[in-house]
TrEMBL record, chain A:
CDD domains in the record: F-box_AtFBW1-like
Protein name: F-box domain-containing protein
Any Pfam family: FBA_1
InterPro entries per record: F-box-assoc_dom_typ1, F-box-assoc_interact_dom, F-box-like_dom_sf, F-box_dom, SCF_F-box_component
Source species of the chain: Erythranthe guttata (Yellow monkey flower)
Residues covered by the F-box domain: 2-48
Automatic annotation (TrEMBL), chain B:
Recorded metabolic or biological pathway in which this protein acts: Protein modification; protein ubiquitination
Domain of life according to the entry: Eukaryota
Species, as recorded: Erythranthe guttata (Yellow monkey flower)
One GO MF term attached to the UniProt entry: cullin family protein binding
Protein name: SKP1-like protein
């Protein structure tokens, strides 16, 4: 071989590129036209995403945080490493990096994050616009407005959303309920087709508007809904299946079948499983995980805490749990508190979302 | 390197610059290419490896011996691979990835690819073109347009004088 090195075959180059982070790959699009086409190849983007998502150390997972800048009255977005929280050799609080080229800056002051999937983040701007944004590549796409009975999505309170990847159709979909209709009218957006279409009405109770955006587990979206056959305070888990576009009830833990009154349980995804954060009758919170999807008997209480304030949770393969409290993230191992971090740029009670760094493009998918 | 009594079968490998190497068959068959030759009974005399030079082959054999001496413990194997590759420069790594590909050694191939990526991560576009021998086929306008789209990814890039 010696000096004759300029014949590294394409399949080896592909394997080397596969190991690079997104930032380097975007820069190396400039190397040559063939590198550009390798890096933007759909199959490569998918393989690269799969590798990043599966990393047990969460090297490429970022927490997205939002803060208000008093001087400009704008909200800023930042990100900090999720993997860092699980490092045993941590030294200080993780650094928050300001995310650049925020796509909404031109249109609005404030926005909400409605979900993240495969490195894409669904955002709702106060102006009523919906956006799909890849914070890593800074690529963004404006989603056309959805209309119900001539009404447009001008307030996030009147609508509830879910964002997911539909693997069978290799498409990104947004599901939207109109909460001021009875029965609840529902529409679905396809990124590939760039249109909204009407789907079956939501007839599995009332979607809880405070339960937040849909949670993606097992290729299906999930929300909490109050059980219309019973008094207020009973919650069901309702799933949406992309293959038949139907809603279904997913069984809750048996012990959970109690009246929560004003204490609303929270649906979460925990290490790829569907989870429930339930307020306890006395004081405190317990966390449930459905180990075998769809099997009521497999719900397992994985964690109980005396604290009643809780935020988002994440879990590592070895079972360490990270929990957001106010502007802090605390990492637990079973019962013991391992360490805690303060997240910069964040006011009290932030709702952190996590995305994985990916090359997926909302504008050209 | 005479075979000692009681030692397992030894193979003789020949690099493309005619260096001869003795290696235990049990270590050499980490290479699927060599294993196939052994199984087909073509490994009786000297095994010629026309795509690998002596310097690279010596290094690959060090790896074969080192990794096969470690019992089935993926953590230990990984830390051996990390240490083995830690002081290698880009040229050596490029030779090794080609050799690993030719010899069909997937564990070495994966480790070297990841190591090359680690070396490249903060390098400039010019560095990559030089090291990989790639000709820039963009017009200046085209290149400027691609660069403009991802301007921020050019921040924090290392200077090129470290080779």
């Amino acid at each position: 071989m010696g000096n004759n090195r300029n014949h590294i075959p394409v399949e080896i180059i592909d394997q080397i590129l596969y190991n690079l982070p997104v930032k380097s790959l975007l820069r190396f699009k400039c190397v040559s036209k063939s590198w550009l086409s390798m890096i933007t190849d759909k199959d490569f983007v998918k393989r690269h995403l799969k590798k990043s998502s599966a990393d047990p150390r969460f090297t490429h997972h970022k927490i997205i945080v939002k803060s208000h800048d008093k001087s400009t009255n704008y909200y800023n977005l930042g990100s900090c490493s999720l993997g860092y929280l699980y490092e045993e050799t941590y030294e200080k609080n993780p650094r928050t990096q300001i995310l650049i080229d925020r796509p909404l800056a031109k249109w609005c002051f404030d926005f909400r994050i409605l979900g993240a999937c495969n490195g894409l983040v669904l955002m709702f701007a106060e102006t009523g616009h919906l956006f799909l944004w890849n914070p890593t590549t800074t690529d963004a796409k404006h989603i056309p407005s959805v209309y119900f009975d001539g009404r447009c999505d001008s307030s996030v309170r009147e609508f509830m959303y879910g964002f997911a990847y539909d693997e069978a159709n290799d498409d990104y979909k947004v599901v939207c309920f109109y909460l001021h209709s009875k029965p609840f009218q529902t529409k679905m957006y396809s990124l590939k087709g760039n249109y909204w279409k009407k789907i079956d009405n939501f007839e599995k109770g009332s979607p809880g508007c405070r339960s937040g955006a849909g949670k993606l587990v097992n290729g299906k979206l999930h929300w909490l809904a109050t059980d219309s056959r019973r008094a207020w305070g009973w919650w069901d888990i309702v799933s949406f299946n992309f293959s038949d576009e139907k809603f279904e009830i997913v069984p809750c833990p048996r012990q959970y079948m109690s009246n929560y009154g004003r204490n609303i349980p929270k649906l979460v995804t925990l290490g790829g499983y569907l989870g429930l954060i339930c307020p306890e009758r006395q004081k405190g919170t317990s966390v449930w995980v459905m180990i075998e999807y769809g099997d009521a008997e497999s719900w397992t209480r994985v964690w109980t805490t005396k604290s009643s304030g809780y935020g988002e949770l994440w879990v590592t393969k070895n079972g360490d749990i990270a929990v957001a409290y106010g502007s802090y993230i605390v990492v637990y191992n079973g019962r013991k508190k391992l360490r805690q971090f303060r997240i910069d740029m964040v006011g009290a009670n932030f709702v952190p979302d996590v995305y994985v760094e990916s090359l997926v493009s909302p504008s050209t998918h | 390197m005479a075979a000692e009594t009681g030692t397992p079968t030894t193979l003789t490998l020949k690099s493309n610059d005619d260096e001869l190497f003795s290696v235990a068959e049990s270590a050499a068959i980490l290479s699927v290419t060599i294993r196939n030759m052994v199984e087909d009974g073509c490994a009786g005399g000297v095994i010629p490896l026309d795509n690998v030079d002596g310097k690279t082959l010596a290094s690959v054999i060090t790896y074969m011996n080192g990794i096969s001496a470690i019992p089935a413990d993926e953590e230990k194997k990984k830390s051996y691979r990390d240490k083995f590759l830690s002081d290698k420069d880009f040229e050596t790594l490029a030779d090794m990835v080609l050799a690993a590909n030719y010899l069909n050694m997937s564990c070495l191939m994966d480790a070297v690819s990841a190591k090359i990526a680690q070396v490249m991560e903060k390098k400039s576009v010019g560095w990559v073109r030089r090291k990989f021998g790639i000709e820039n086929d963009y017009t200046p306008e085209e290149e400027a347009a691609v660069k403009e789209e991802h301007k921020w990814t050019f921040e924090g890039v290392e200077t090129d004088d470290d080779n």
